[in-house]
Description:
This protein has 321 residues and is α/β, with parallel strands linked by helices.
Amino acid sequence: xxFSGHFWTIWPLLQRLAFPPPPPEGEQxxxxxxxxxxxxxxxxxxxxxxxxxSGLVVLVHGLGGSIDSGYMSxxxxxxxxxxxxxxxxxxxGADGACDDFYxxxxxxxxxxxxxxxxxxxxxxxxxxxxxxxxxLCLRFATEVRDPRVRAVAxxxxxxxxxxxxAAFDQPRCWIYRRYVLAxxxxxxxxxTMPTPIEELRRVRTVREWDxxxxxxxxxxxxxxxxxxxxxxxxxxxxxxxxxxxxxxVDDPLVPEAAVRCALPGPELLRVEWVExxxxxxxxxxxxxxxxxxxxxxxxxxxxxxxQARPCVSNPGGGAGI
Length: 321
């Protein structure tokens, strides 16, 4: 791991914290309730910028994040500049609007939110997820039935959850892990958790966090069982929509090896490896060869908008285009 990966992870994050990007003008609160067999009524919330009508991009945050994460607002503003509406989505429980929480495989919520009457007007829908949110988007792309969904994109996302968590729990990642766990604790303070919040504040690894929260709540046998059953690694051969994955070679949170080991054939998933970048941080002039403005968000959203053509689902596996 080079110093470059740490720089491109930390410096953009500090910039976003010091100077939070403003959301698009005219953005309005959005919410939708769905029925969960175990947890009852679940309320999902977000912020909808619906002035544009050419298409909608659903933006999905990473572990410990929310719609207030700086990369979410920046993506929404970039989408508006490209003529796209956007929905910055809070994953289940990220805002305390319901007494439940998300996990890496809870992609069903992404499908259900498209039932929202506020989203009926959109004929083209795209999903763009960051880190764990990208993992959710890729898993969703193996299940999607809604014909309006044209494509999905994932940025700095893990594929093999077991390997990714093992790497993230190493001592060298302690400062990043502390930041992510702090976000999860803030979320949990508003919820009823399977483990008392006092104990969760003392958790120091993601695997232990999952053992005390996700495993008991969702009925997994242990963290390993959770990672196997929820992970997208073994499902990428079943992608039903065009999908893009953008990862940095030197990402200190999601190591290259934990991604390459799970990649399917090139016809199923387009993968862009960026030499200069970190976790969710890239040069402002990043060029992936797409018809969009330079920079991560412009290039990824440009690729998504370029997929606006009829898609045919392929239940038998393979890319649906």
